[in-house]
Amino acid sequence: MVRRVRERAETRPRRVRVAAAAALTVAVVLVLARTNPMHLTFLQDHPLSGNWAFGTASLLMVLALELFSWTVGRLAAVLVSVVVIALICGGGFFLESPASFVRRGHDLAGDAYTADGRYELRIYSWDYADGPSEWQVLVERRGTFRFVATDAGCLAASATTYQGIASFEPGRARLTTSDGTVDIRFDPDTMRVTTPIPAALCPKG
Fold it and tell me: In whole angstroms, what is the distance from residue 27 CA to residue 136 CA?
């Protein structure tokens, strides 16, 4: 059995195995670029299209599995493919903080920067058939290469309606809603939210 496997592997030209490894590598890079587990600022500002990235990665994984022979290389390809599929299905959730995960697949309802450009306030809406049902608020500190995201809470349509950003400065953000102004405070150095959105404005269940 072992001899047969070795003979089959030897019939595969080296360039075919190299092409398979390259295809698998590109697939992994595409998925990681889309999920951005390292919180890279460039990928945040220039995100890949999810459908394009995941579709291309899936095709490349199929190509890699077809090219690899039933050797250790193919078993490794299967293992890597499983990890990539888990990333696709989970959107990188288990590699990222929940605050970063929320940005994927939802519409950007509001966006503001501080005067120095170091901090960013993002509001994402969770839309359903009858319109927005919830707005998630993220405060981010932007670095040259990486960013830090912090969840500042949410607003639920059952309690209030998000209308816009009143002001945003290091350490403080103010949102306008149908019921008045909501004040958010955070520590610019540690990025810890000291005054999140009141839980009553985003009831669960």
Answer: 30
Amino acid identity of residue 43, one-letter, is L
Low-confidence stretches of the chain (pLDDT beneath 70):
1-17, 35, 37, 39, 44-54, 65-106, 127-132, 205
DSSP state at residue 66: H
Distance CA 9, CA 3 (A): 10
Distance of CA 169 to the CA centre of its chain: 25
Assess contact for 87 and 93: CB atoms under 8 A.
no
Q: CA-based Rg of the chain, rounded to a whole angstrom? A: 22
Distance of CA 131 to the CA centre of its chain: 23
- Using CA atoms, how far apart are residues 133 and 129, in angstroms rounded to an integer? 10
How far apart are alpha carbons 155 and 182 in whole angstroms?
10
79 contacts: CB under 8 Å, gap ≥ 6: none
What is the separation, in whole angstroms, between the first and last Cα of the chain?
Answer: 57
Give the per-residue pLDDT at 61. Answer: 72
pLDDT at 173: 97
**Residue 154 pairs with which residues in a beta bridge?**
136
